[in-house]
């Protein structure tokens, strides 16, 4: 299986070099960085990795926009699959083969930080965990999934499913559109355990999304809109 491994980045000068070096050690195929309009030294540092393909957005568009560019690059490049992970040090590149492995039997593989405890000393910020639990409940009750982690960015996709996604949310709510559309197309989903790592609890979502209540309400709005657009018959007990 010919794989592309992609990371969306925005102003990641502190983490980029060590994370990208590790990805290059463990990625079984080509590596892509989607630079979402960085204004720090990220573009300069990327020039030190000549084997890495770079797509640059001229302005900062958002996390979802970065992943959408990765989807498009996977399809246009004729790859069989895509692995995505973040550049903030919260995902271990050594796990790339384990996340990609189930693509032989699943359309979408999603990392879960709550299937297995790797390090008992690690704990997510309380508000983030509460929101994740609530959104995961929506996905399970409304879509019939049995997920444990709604927002892990460590994922793998079969390339053939990527053109089916219609991603309009360019921000952090984009995964909700992915989950709803995965359900509407009957895609097979597998979760695999990945370590829970929180290195910097002060990292921000940006603007009003830094407020937990606002963020949850925004996620609910995007989720409900995705449900309406999908026109799928939601599972009983849906309270999203």
TrEMBL record:
The keyword Cell membrane does not apply. SUPFAM superfamilies: Nucleotide-diphospho-sugar transferases (SSF53448). Keywords: Glycosyltransferase, Transferase. GO terms for molecular function: undecaprenyl-phosphate mannosyltransferase activity. It is an enzyme of class 2 (transferase). Residues 7-162 form the Glycosyltransferase 2-like domain. Its EC number is 2.4.1.54. Pfam families: Glycos_transf_2 (PF00535). InterPro entries: Glyco_trans_2-like (IPR001173), Glycosyltransferase_2 (IPR050256), Nucleotide-diphossugar_trans (IPR029044). PANTHER family: RFBJ PROTEIN, UNDECAPRENYL-PHOSPHATE 4-DEOXY-4-FORMAMIDO-L-ARABINOSE TRANSFERASE-RELATED. This is Undecaprenyl-phosphate mannosyltransferase. The lineage of its organism: Bacteria, Pseudomonadati, Planctomycetota, Planctomycetia, Isosphaerales.
């Amino acid at each position: 299986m010919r794989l592309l491994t992609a990371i969306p980045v925005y102003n990641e000068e502190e983490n980029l070099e060590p994370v990208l070096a590790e990805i290059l050690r463990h990625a079984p195929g080509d590596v892509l960085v989607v630079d979402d309009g960085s204004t720090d030294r990220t573009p300069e540092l990327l020039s030190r990795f000549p084997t890495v393909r770079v797509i640059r957005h001229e302005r900062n568009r958002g996390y979802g926009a970065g992943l959408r560019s990765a989807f498009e690059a996977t399809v246009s490049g004729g790859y069989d699959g895509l692995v995505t992970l973040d550049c903030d040090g919260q995902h271990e590149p050594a796990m790339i083969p384990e996340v990609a492995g189930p693509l032989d039997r699943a359309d979408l593989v999603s990392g879960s930080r709550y299937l297995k405890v790797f390090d008992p000393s690690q704990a997510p910020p309380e508000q983030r965990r509460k929101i994740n639990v609530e959104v995961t409940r929506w996905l399970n009750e409304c879509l019939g999934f049995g997920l444990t982690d709604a927002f892990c960015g460590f994922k793998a996709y079969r390339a053939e499913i990527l053109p089916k996604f219609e991603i309009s949310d360019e921000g952090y709510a984009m995964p909700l559109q992915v989950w709803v559309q995965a359900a509407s197309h009957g895609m097979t989903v597998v979760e695999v355990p990945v370590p829970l790592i929180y290195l910097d609890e002060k990292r921000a979502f940006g603007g009003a999304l830094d407020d937990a209540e606002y963020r949850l309400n925004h996620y609910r709005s995007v989720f409900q809109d995705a449900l309406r657009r999908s026109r799928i018959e939601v599972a009983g007990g849906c309270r999203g």
